[in-house]
């Protein structure tokens, strides 16, 4: 089990990347999922790279960005080249993005075909650079449901296209995340773990709220205290070997919650290993 913190969890805190690396190391994490905004803001400082992170015994598990699939082709490719360069600098071959800005039910066939075409072009580019493009299962995108995600994989039909499986958002779509994981498992390269007290609070993860410093955090709970059964999920996910995942926490007391959740995840992983 390889666990990472997400630097996006600290977006409203006054911590340096050095402090985050210290925290990740001291809290038993193996890596850092670097938010694209943070990678871009560090681009001019040559002191920070994969080698620097390795001095803490850590790796960059993924660079999480938002590639502009709906922009003009030159703009899209320029951004892809920039992100690819940053990923190489930080020593990761995994680049995360979203597909579209509308849910699958609201995306007409012409728009879906164009997005899929763009996605294939990006996959070809990243494959040439030894990298993978991970699309995240997320509401208001073409991967907002299991059927649409499977369809997108089939339509794109490219080996560089992979899945960042967000467990909560897959559960939010109305399917059993364990069953969904089993169907998508051949394509999953990373997981996002977070939880919620009940469905009525799911709106707290809407981008306009979760990215706002003054946004509501009501309903956000530690990993093993919410509606999604992570004991069950982890037992199934780890049954077939090691996985890589990031703990996403957008609420208060970020260090304490992440450390607590990491300790609990490691306990479950140890039990699975003993019983396997």
Automatic annotation (TrEMBL):
InterPro entries from the xrefs?
Answer: IolE/XylAMocC-like, Xyl_isomerase-like_sf, Xyl_isomerase-like_TIM-brl
Q: Could you tell me what this protein is called? A: 3-dehydroshikimate dehydratase
Query: Which is one Pfam family of this protein?
Result: AP_endonuc_2
Q: Which domain of life is it from?
A: Bacteria
**For the Xylose isomerase-like TIM barrel domain, which residue ranges apply?**
23-261
